[in-house]
């Protein structure tokens, strides 16, 4: 009989040690080392496998493996066009955000296309899953349901069902009976995920696994979990609001810049086909401290409102807080405003917010951010039909951005008639009739034109170059 070996594993980062330590050397957390039994080596017990041989990449033949379209355009966009066979996808999000609802509806859509789906619930019984399915109007004849947490039993049922898609809800409840550690521990999560990865690649099954998140919003378990899977999706949103955002932070088969927007209703998740209209529907007209920007989320332009509140500070050091964007970037832009535009902001608190819960991380949103801060500081609102697109440099110049044509067309579609864009982006593309494009090259120039000097712009011109005589 093989000797049983135990190690101490950190439940936060997965660091292993032969002895107990109060503080983990990997993540520097206290009291996270837990003793777990290491599975003994089963040499000679594994069945013989077909030997793989090296092959020239140019000689590898590709079969026809089209993506499996779910019928959820928002979901398919984030996945890169559909579900890839033999892929392993990890879906994370806060408790109660709608991960199980999303995957059950996706399973129903895939089942109605004729594909066999195997939904395994480790947190609900079959009857409870059926109750939730009735509420969501899930009625596919190809959807199989099982309440099981043993990975060995799941694999046996998998052979009898023979599905094309499998859903595990959730990975923290699945365990391997050959290991003595408790379900949800680092060893169990890592081993079960590796087992599912082998099933996906050898059987050609697309597998979705639901992962819990920590208090900090990161996926629970070791970081190796995210490296093992092909795609990592995050389902975001406030529990007390109806809108949900699906993002891909890792995707081996598509872009990670795409975003899917859903609305949670009584009958489940409903796609939002026009996110820009949703983000702007509660915008206050005529209020200072507000500016609209056309941001790019992957291939989709999205119009969002950037809000700012600037007020005199009551402390020695003024506060700089931002929600939905990098607060360090906001502090940098305020320094540019003070140096290049002459605004005295060193004794002002500044709070910047991106309305709607969306997160902006591209430089093209700089111009709307500085305009909203200047609008709040001077208490002068921007025009309700203005949109601001551009990157702001440290010398106060307005730098060019990509995909200006899509941004402007989306703005015009939603009723905006004037766009402040970098001067270098003026030429070389077709513009909508009735949309006035104002090319600006400096921060002082755009501030001078944005606040109350509309008469300088010819009413019939489609382009306006401030340097033109």
Model description:
By secondary structure, this protein is α/β, with parallel strands linked by helices. The protein has three domains: 5-38; 69-272, 3-Layer(aba) Sandwich (Rossmann fold), CATH 3.40.50.300; 278-464, Ribosomal Protein S5, domain 2, CATH 3.30.230. It is built from eleven helices and 22 strands. It has helices at 73-79, 99-112, 126-135, 151-161, 186-203, 224-228, 275-280, 327-340, 366-378, 404-413, 443-450, and strands spanning 5-10, 16-17, 33-38, 88-93, 117-121, 143-147, 165-169, 206-211, 231-236, 243-251, 259-265, 268-271, 290-297, 300-312, 320-323, 348-354, 386-388, 391-392, 398-399, 418-422, 436-440, 463-464. The strands form five sheets. A nine-stranded mixed β-sheet has the order 6-5-7-8-4-9-10-11-12, with helices on both faces. A four-stranded mixed β-sheet has the order 13-14-16-15. A hairpin with a 6-residue loop joins strand 9 and strand 10 (243-251). Helix 8 (327-340) crosses helix 9. It starts with a strand and ends in a 5-residue tail after the last strand. Mean pLDDT is 86; it is low at 41-48 and 453-466.
